[in-house]
Structure formats: structure tokens, C-alpha cells
Design brief:
This protein is of the alpha+beta class. It contains four helices and five strands.
Length: about 110
């Protein structure tokens, strides 16, 4: 079993799925809808945090709390997950958190 996050429109939804073998082919079988970015683990409901939220959190700390190491952490996250990031969501949320200048900085600089 694993969690699959599916984007529908501008929202993301989490599903608990498992691989089911039918006639020699493995298909996904949805076991439960977990809601937008949440997952049930035993009696607990856990929030699934995307890499976008981690980047925004580090950029906020770097800018608002003046922690330069957090800027580097955001840059490393961005560089490592660049192909998987929902850039539209990241830009929109960065604007709302007033860190779009920091986001622009990490997206335009090249890693060494």
C-alpha cells in the first residue's frame, strides 16, 4: 500500500492505494479517499506536507527571522525537487506570504 497524491484542477487529493494483480498486470486499486493532503494512520489523521510548503517555510524563516541557513535549505529543496514542484502553487503562495522575492532568487540562481 502507498499514498498517491492526485492533482485535480488546482487542488491535490490523497488516496490510499495498493497494487492489484489481474491477469498478469498490476493495477492500482483505491482503498480510501484521504482528503486533500491528509492521511489516516491508525487512529490519527496526519497532514501530508508537500515540498512546496517546506520551501515556503524555509524562505519565510530566512526572510522574516533573518536565518541565512534556511535560505540555503530552501535552495537545496528546490534544486532537488525542481521537476516535481507545482510552480503555479509555489509562486501564488509565495506572493501571499510575501517571500516572492526570495523565491525568485532561488529559482534564478544555479546550484554549484
Amino acid at each position: 500500500m502507498y499514498v498517491r497524491v492526485k492533482k485535480i484542477g488546482s487542488k491535490r487529493y490523497a488516496y490510499l492505494v495498493e497494487g492489484v494483480s489481474k491477469k498478469g498486470k498490476v493495477r492500482q486499486k483505491t482503498l480510501a479517499y484521504l482528503g486533500p493532503r491528509t492521511m489516516r494512520v491508525g487512529p490519527y489523521t496526519a497532514r501530508i506536507v508537500g515540498v512546496e510548503e517546506l520551501i515556503l517555510d524555509r524562505l519565510s524563516a530566512a526572510k522574516l527571522l533573518n536565518i541565512p541557513a534556511d535560505y540555503e535549505k530552501a535552495k537545496v529543496l528546490y534544486d532537488n525537487f525542481k521537476k516535481q514542484i507545482d510552480m503555479e502553487y509555489l509562486r501564488k503562495t509565495a506572493k501571499g506570504k510575501n517571500v516572492e522575492d526570495s523565491l525568485l532568487r532561488i529559482t534564478e540562481t544555479t546550484s554549484r
